[in-house]
Every structure is written in structure tokens, then in C-alpha cells.
Amino acid sequence: MLSHLQFKRSPALIPLIAVSLSLASCSANSKNVNTVSLIGAGASFPAPLYQRWIADYNQVNPHVEINYQSLGSSVGIQQLIDGTVDFAGSDIGITHEQVAKIKRGAIALPMTASSVVLAYNVPNIPNNLKLSRQVYTDIFLGKITNWNDPRIASANPGIQLPNLPIQVIHRTDGSGTTSVLTEHFSAISPEWKNKVGAGRSIQWPVGIAARGNEGVTAQIQQTVGAIGYVEYVYATHNKLPVAALENKSGNYIIPTPESVAKTLEAVKLPTDTLIAFIADPIAAESYPIVTYTWLLTYKKYPDPAKAQTIQNFVNWAVTEGQKSSLELGYIPLSPKVVSQVKSAAQHIEK
Predict the structure, then answer these.
(1) Environment class of 157 (CB within 10 Å of its CB; exposed 0-12, middle 13-18, buried 19+)
(2) Cis before residue 15, ω within 30 degrees of 0?
(3) The domain at 11-114+289-345 falls in which architecture?
(4) In Å, how far from its chain's centre is CA 165?
(5) Which CATH architecture has domain 116-261?
(6) Digit-coded pLDDT (tens) for 89-114
(7) I need a labelling partner for 110 at 20 to 30 A (CA). Which of 122, 145, 249, 297 fits?
């Protein structure tokens, strides 16, 4: 891997299987409108925002057809390598080794950012239950198995924790969200790093598997005593309580736009790849598990119309599209990152 880091729409936004809308490219002086079709797949993390962008873009560009399937970062990257999509979504960018497999080259463009949260389903337990770094890694290691464990209780005085088994929910598919979470776990827990490690797909010590952010969210909702990891917008849209996590400074931080933005301030995107991560932010007000998410395009497109349409959509998404990011629970790109993305998108060859 390269170097390290309320939503007011219809419930139909989640789960997202695919979005197909007619979007477009035509000359203002031409009587004949040429439809351009784009196919994309990948990360479920940004899928609700991509759906919104596609719908909004359609209002002003009604003659481009875009289909984005929420299948996980691993699937998106592989389909880009195989040449079966026009673009991909990934929460982990793309590695040098993967780019080397793509004859047409690839460009990674950060489009938005958000947090990975630990959501839970425990009767009569309020939102923002405090979980220390040791506690939440030990839960996913299978070492803390009951909600009334003294180590959970010590950080939450006054809360009556139930005598209820903990049910860990995790991803079964190759997932950028999993990679972000496990990189963080590996950074804060030597035991996790040595026994489990980090990656898009790992051998989980305990838990029930589900596919996509959509599947994990649904499994948490259905399972009393559950705790699992999902992108922020999936938890908030489905009204799941989320934990306040202890950060490196020892503060318990609730995932908010402000705490996520604090984390992003420490992420410096290199100009050559625009890919960077921060596994364990040090700022006192930083939420500890945050990532950008990337749109992966080819560098070269045989069809000039597709190249121009991809470039147009990216430029729209990082400007006009950013206005809806915060509304849906994502973090708008900073002006500096917007400038970097627009500059990188100019390298898409027509």
C-alpha cells in the first residue's frame, strides 16, 4: 500500500446496489445529442454521496449514462485492472503494484472524506458510549465478550450496562473500510498487529460476517448486543448509536464534522499520488479513524468522449458537488485538495 491515513434523503439511498441515470455530453451548436455511458464500481463508503452527485449532475447534464455499483474497494480495483469498468471507487487508493497492471495507467482522485465509526445495538444504552483504545481492540480480538465488562463500565460511570454477550459484526468482502479500521488497530495495539494485522481482507478472531457497509449496518440492526464498524453516514441515517473513541491524546471523541476535519488537517497528500493516510492522529480533538475516499480513473481512454465526460464530472463533483457532502455526513474537500484534484484530472488523456 502507498503511504499512510443527517442525511436528509430517502431511505432508498441505503442499501445501494446500483445507480443508473442518464447524464452528458453534447455540443451546444449540434442538433444531434450523443449519449455517453460510464460504468463504475467499488467502495460502499462513498456510495450514498455518489448517488446524490449522479442525481444532481443529471439535472444539468441529462445525456450521460452513469452506473455505479457498491461492491467494495477490492472489487472496484480489480475491475479497473480487468478493464471492465470506466472508473472505480476505493477507500484505500491504489498501490504502485496495482497501477503497474493497468496498461492505460490510473489516476487516484480524493473526492470526499469521512469517519469509520463503531456502531452498536444495546438496549437502553445511550449514544456515544465511551470505549478506550484497549477496550475496542480487545472487543474485536474477542477478549472482551460481555457488555457489562468492568473495563467498559470504568469509562462509563452512571450507565447501567446489561449482562449481554457482545456480537462483533465485520465485513466479509475485500473492503477499504476494513483496511482503514485495521490499520488503526495495528497502530494502537501490538497484539492486534502481531496476531491479526491490517488489510482489505483479514482473518477475524471473532464475529459475524456481512457484505458492504449496507450489510454490516443491517446486521447490527438485527442483532441485539451487536457492535460493528461502518462509515458514519450509514450509522446516522439508520439511527444507530455510535461510540466515543479514545484518541492518542487520551480524549474520548465523538465523530463529528469538526473532529474529522481536525484529523484531516494532519493528512498531507503527496502531489504525485494524492494518496495518504493517518492511522493514529495526535491532535487532542481528532477523531481517530478517518479516511479520504478516491475515485480511480484511467489515465488514457480510447474514447475521447468518455475521457472528457469523466473529467467534467470530477471537476463538477469537487466544486458544486461538495455542497451536498456535509449534508450527507461527509467532509467537503479543502480548497487546497480541490485544486490538487482538478490539476490531476487534467492528466486524463483524451
Answers:
(1) exposed
(2) yes
(3) 3-Layer(aba) Sandwich (3.40)
(4) 29
(5) 3-Layer(aba) Sandwich (3.40)
(6) 999 999 999 999 999 999 999 999 99
(7) 249
